[in-house]
Design goal:
The complex is a heterodimer.
Chain A lengths: L11 H21 L1 H10 L3 H11 L5 H13 L3 E6 L5 H14 L5 E6 L6 E6 L2 E6 H7 L5
Parallel strand pairs in A: 1-2
Antiparallel strand pairs in A: 1-3, 3-4
Chain B lengths: L2 H153 L5 H19 L2
Classes of the chains: A alpha+beta, B mainly alpha.
Chain lengths: 146, 181
C-alpha cells in the first residue's frame, strides 16, 4: 500500500516523531491486541496522528500490515538537506518545502540544520549532490576572512 | 342306678377336683416363693456389684488424685518450661521484627534519599541545561550582531531576516539551475 505522507509531514523531525508513534502502535498490537491498540491510539499519540491512522484504516482490517507498510513508507522518505545561517520561522520552513516540492521533488522531506557560521545563504545536499552556497564560502573565495 | 350312687360319685369327683386345685395352688405358691427368693438374690447381687463398682471408682479417683498431686510439681515445671519457650520465641520474633523494621526503614530512607538525590540531580541538570541554552542564545545573538556588523562593513549592507530568506531562495534556485538539483 502506498502512502502520501507529504501532506502531513514537512521536515525530518516531524517524520521521526511520527515514526516513533507508529512504533508504539505496532508494539501495542503485538503485545496485547486490539484493546491495547485502541488505548494507545487514544493516549500515546497526537490527536492528528490518531486521526490520520483512522483515515488510513478505512475498510482495511489488518492494522498490523497497514502500520508496517506505513512505517516502511516513512523509512523510504527522500530527504532534501539544507543548512541555514539562521533559525527559520515556521512560515519560512513552509516556503522552503513548497519551493523544493514544486521545483525538485514533490515528495521531498526537508532535513533542516542551523549553523550561524555560514553568515548567510545555505548549504544544500540532495541525492548525493552537495553545494555550499553560503555567504561564508563566497567571502572565503574572495579571500576575506572572519 | 340309684340316687345314692350318683351322689357318691359326685362327692368323689368334687373331692378329686378339690384336691387337684389344692395341689395346683400349693405348686404356684411354691413357685412364687422361689421367684421371690431369686428376685432377692438378683437384687443382692446387683447391690454387691454396684458397691464393688463404687468402691472401684472411689479407689481409681483416689489413685488419680494422688497421682495428680504427685505430678503437680512436675506438670508445673513442664508448663513453666513451655511458657518460657513460648515467651522466648515471642521475644525473638519481636526482636527480629524490630530488626527487620529497622532494616526496612533504613532501606526506605536510602531509597527516599536516592530519589531525592535523583530529583535534585535532575533539577540541577535542568538548571545547567537552561543556563547553557540561555548563554548559547546570548552568544549566538552577539555573534549574529557581530557578523551582521562585519558583513555590513564588508558588503555595504546589513543582513536582515528578510534578506536571509531571499538569499536562501536564491541559493535553492542556483542549486537547481547550476548544480543539477
Amino acid at each position: 500500500m502506498d502512502f502520501d505522507i507529504t501532506s502531513v509531514i514537512q521536515t525530518r523531525s516531524q517524520l521521526e516523531l511520527l515514526a516513533k508513534e507508529t512504533d508504539i502502535l505496532i508494539d501495542s498490537l503485538y503485545r496485547s491486541g486490539d484493546q491495547d491498540f485502541d488505548h494507545k491510539l487514544r493516549s500515546a499519540v497526537r490527536i492528528s496522528t490518531a486521526a490520520m491512522i483512522g483515515e488510513m484504516q478505512g475498510s482495511q482490517s489488518d492494522m498490523k500490515r497497514l502500520l508496517e507498510d506505513f512505517k516502511e513508507s516513512l523509512s523510504n522518505a527522500e530527504y532534501f538537506q539544507i543548512t541555514l545561517a539562521f533559525e527559520p520561522t515556521q512560515k519560512f520552513v513552509g516556503q522552503i518545502v513548497s519551493w523544493v516540492r514544486e521545483n525538485i521533488n514533490s515528495k521531498a522531506i526537508l532535513d533542516i540544520n542551523y549553523d550561524s557560521n555560514l553568515i548567510g545563504g545555505a548549504q544544500l545536499s540532495y541525492k548525493g549532490k552537495y553545494v555550499d552556497l553560503s555567504l561564508r564560502k563566497k567571502l572565503s573565495e574572495t579571500n576575506l576572512q572572519f | 342306678m340309684s340316687t345314692d350312687v350318683l351322689a357318691i360319685i359326685s362327692i368323689v369327683s368334687l373331692s378329686v377336683m378339690l384336691v387337684s386345685t389344692l395341689m395346683g395352688y400349693l405348686g404356684l405358691r411354691s413357685k412364687l416363693t422361689q421367684f421371690e427368693k431369686e428376685g432377692d438374690d438378683i437384687r443382692e447381687t446387683a447391690r454387691k456389684n454396684a458397691r464393688a463398682v463404687l468402691d472401684q471408682a472411689q479407689e481409681t479417683a483416689l489413685k488419680m488424685a494422688q497421682e495428680a498431686i504427685l505430678h503437680a510439681q512436675e506438670n508445673k515445671n513442664l508448663i513453666k518450661e513451655k511458657l518460657d519457650a513460648v515467651t522466648k520465641q515471642q521475644v525473638d520474633e519481636y526482636q527480629q521484627m524490630v530488626k527487620d523494621s529497622s532494616a526496612q526503614a533504613t532501606r526506605e530512607l536510602a531509597h527516599a534519599l536516592d530519589l531525592k538525590i535523583d530529583v535534585e540531580w535532575e533539577r540541577a541538570q535542568k538548571e545547567i541545561h537552561e543556563y547553557e541554552q540561555s548563554r548559547k542564545q546570548e552568544i549566538d545573538l552577539r555573534v549574529q550582531e557581530a557578523v551582521s556588523r562585519a558583513t555590513e562593513k564588508l558588503i555595504g549592507t546589513a543582513i536582515t531576516p528578510q534578506l536571509h530568506e531571499e538569499n536562501v531562495i536564491k541559493a535553492l534556485a542556483q542549486a537547481k539551475n547550476e548544480y543539477g538539483f
